[in-house]
Design a protein that fits this description.
- The complex is a heterodimer of chains A (about 180) and B (about 160).
- Chain A has one domain: Immunoglobulin-like (Sandwich), CATH 2.60.40.
- Chain A has about 180 residues and is of the alpha+beta class.
- A five-stranded antiparallel beta sheet of chain A has the order 2-4-10-8-9, with no helix packed on it. A five-stranded antiparallel beta sheet of chain A has the order 3-11-7-6-12, with no helix packed on it.
- Helix content of chain A is about 15%, strand content about 35%.
- Chain A is built from one helix and 13 strands, in the order H-E-E-E-E-E-E-E-E-E-E-E-E-E.
- In chain A, strand 6 and strand 7 form a beta hairpin.
- Chain A is elongated, with a radius of gyration of 37 Å.
- Chain B has one domain: Immunoglobulin-like.
- The chains are: A alpha+beta (about 180), B mainly beta (about 160).
- At the A-B interface, helix 1 and strand 1 of A face helix 1, strand 1, strand 2, strand 4 and strand 13 of B.
- Strand 1 of chain A pairs parallel with strand 2 of chain B.
């Protein structure tokens, strides 16, 4: 009897052992998963608008005319909006000539290395100073450190036309292009 | 009595081979921060605080597989933004201490199964990525879910 009880107890323990073995095996195949996130905050879209044309008004044959970047009524003005404080790349593409609509004549236009100002502080062409951004800038190499101002950023542009002595009469125009992009800073 | 003694011996032997369940925890999100429309941004896996980090615990020396479920886009209400993971955007370290800047296994492909062994201090898994916002990407907060599944291989 003692031997039989011992045998039964032994079987029970061995069954328990088997169960533990199965449980252990189960753990070895278990898996776990964790969920994390990718997060990002996309900033405001950048825009640029040609707010005001660089207007030379009436020009006379043989008489060159200059419009500064500090004339409220006639300086060229571009307005940039976007994420305040974000760095921007500014690239201005300037024409060499203005032309009649029918292309029959053209007139030289030039830009000096101080014909642009960058205003990030809401000033105007006539009031902008260095503390508002950058003045007397080369429009072909605008400041690399330019940013979008709290309200916006304005680019003021001047230039000079040089009509010939036999310049054909009429309305001349040319495109001035300002490319603006975030630089990621 | 011999049978009992034998059974107890087996139990003792089994406890020596017992394998503890592994766990994986997300300890840091993949954080791109501010993104500007039209300007792609990458977060490298070694960037502390920006790269995604998962912590794995389990039996020292046990081999595990790591399988990511990676999103193709991040989302905000009404818009999405492409999200990419290159074939070298993952790193794993099971040394003690773990070093995100010099992991024991670097430039791993998170787009496939990664097999590695758990160290005495567990294992850390880091993940980088790259977002490519459009020129007129809608502003706002974007999120996506990254899932990491860890399983013992039995080896």
């Amino acid at each position: 009897m003692k031997s039989l009880r011992a045998l039964r107890l032994s079987r029970k323990i061995m069954m328990l052992t088997g169960t533990i073995l199965i449980l252990s095996f189960g753990f070895s195949l278990a898996q776990d998963a964790a969920t994390g996130s990718a997060t990002a905050t996309v900033q405001t879209i950048i825009t640029v608008t040609a707010t005001q044309a660089l207007a030379f008004g009436n020009v006379f044959q043989g008489v060159s005319k200059t419009v500064g970047d500090n004339v409220d009524a006639s300086s060229g003005i571009f307005t940039i909006t976007g994420q305040a404080g974000a760095g921007v790349n500014l690239q201005m593409i300037l024409p060499d000539y203005m032309a009649l609509a029918d292309g029959s004549d053209r007139m030289t236009i030039t830009f000096s290395t101080t014909d642009a100002a960058v205003d990030t502080n809401g000033a105007t062409p006539s009031t902008v100073v260095a503390g508002d951004g950058w003045v007397d800038q080369n429009p072909r190499v605008l400041p690399a450190a330019a940013v979008v101002g709290a309200a916006n950023t304005a680019i003021y542009l001047g230039g000079k036309v040089t009509p010939t002595s036999d310049q054909a009469a009429g309305a001349y125009s040319a495109d001035i292009v300002l490319l603006v992009a975030y630089d990621g800073t | 009595m011999m049978g009992i003694a034998y059974a107890v011996l087996v139990l003792s032997s089994l406890s020596g081979y017992a394998v503890s369940a592994q766990t994986v925890t997300s300890t840091n999100d993949l954080a791109f921060g501010n993104i500007f429309p039209g300007v792609p941004k990458a977060i490298v896996k070694s960037s502390v605080g920006d790269a995604a980090e998962f912590t794995v615990t389990g039996t020292t020396g046990a081999e595990v597989t790591l399988d990511f479920t990676l999103p193709a886009y991040m989302y905000t209400t009404g818009a999405n933004m492409p999200l990419f993971f290159s074939s070298s955007d993952c790193a794993v370290d099971s040394t003690n201490p773990q070093d995100q800047s010099n992991p024991s296994a670097n430039n791993l492909n998170p787009n496939g199964t990664i097999t590695y062994r758990i160290g005495s201090n567990g294992m850390s898994v880091w993940l980088g990525g790259r977002v490519v916002p459009g020129l007129v990407q809608k502003s706002g907060s974007y999120t996506a879910t990254i899932r990491l599944t860890v399983a013992y291989t039995g080896f």
